[in-house]
Amino acid sequence: MSDAKPLDFHTLPLKPASYAASLGSTAVIAPHPDDESLGCGGLLALLARAGLPVWCVLVSDGTMSHPNSRKFPAPQRQAIREQELRAALAELGVGPQMLLPLGLPDGAVPTPDTPAGAAAVQRLTAFFRRTRPATVLVPWRRDPHPDHRSTSLLVRTALDELAQPPRLIEYLVWAWERATPADLPQSGEATGWRLDIESVLTQKTQAIAEHRSQLAPGVFNDDPTGFLLAESMLAHFRQPYEAYVEAAG
Question: How far apart are CA 219 and CA 106, in angstroms?
Answer without folding.
Answer: 18
